[in-house]
């Protein structure tokens, strides 16, 4: 969906990076991460900055980019990115039918804004319906063509860091 609306693959990667999580980055690191030329990344960073979607701040000699949370379309773009990744539907189904889900946290590559093709999810809760979870994971793969790996924990540990997508 997102890649059919936005024709530049580099721009899609930047939107995923900055709007799936509160990431920041600078030109050379983004070019290396995306395996793109610095020029193509620079062009797209300039376009997104000119549109007000990204903010550019100087940190020493380096210009660091991050999403503009005060942009009027920030929530909508974040929602589109979430739908593109299939996270919204996955979370809605899990929370409705799994039982007592306290928190859901995206960890791994997606938590860092990288579209690796595998979504790592940590569910925190007790007495969860693991049979239904297997069903949803398989259905999600069929629908969004992304592998989902889920780890279920009875309580949150300090070692778990990522993007909180459900709970407080």
Automatic annotation (TrEMBL):
CDD domains: HTH_ARSR
Record-linked InterPro entries: ArsR-like_HTH (IPR011991), WH-like_DNA-bd_sf (IPR036388), WH_DNA-bd_sf (IPR036390)
Species per Swiss-Prot/TrEMBL record: Algoriphagus oliviformis
Higher taxonomy: Bacteria, Pseudomonadati, Bacteroidota, Cytophagia, Cytophagales
Protein name, per record: Winged helix-turn-helix transcriptional regulator
């Amino acid at each position: 969906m997102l890649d059919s609306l936005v024709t530049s693959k580099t721009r899609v990667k930047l939107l995923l990076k900055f709007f799936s999580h509160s990431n920041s980055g600078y030109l050379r690191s983004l070019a290396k991460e995306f395996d793109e030329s610095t020029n193509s990344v620079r062009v797209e960073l300039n376009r997104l900055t000119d549109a007000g979607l990204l903010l550019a701040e100087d940190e020493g000699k380096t210009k660091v980019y991050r999403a503009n949370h005060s942009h009027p379309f920030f929530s909508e773009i974040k929602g589109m990115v979430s739908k593109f990744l299939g996270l919204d539907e996955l979370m809605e189904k899990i929370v409705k039918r799994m039982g007592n889900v306290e928190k859901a946290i995206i960890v791994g590559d997606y938590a860092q804004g990288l579209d690796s093709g595998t979504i790592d999810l940590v569910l925190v809760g007790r007495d969860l319906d693991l049979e239904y979870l297997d069903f949803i994971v398989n259905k999600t793969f069929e629908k969004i063509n992304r592998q989902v790996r889920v780890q279920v924990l009875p309580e949150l540990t300090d070692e778990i860091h990522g993007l909180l997508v459900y709970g407080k």
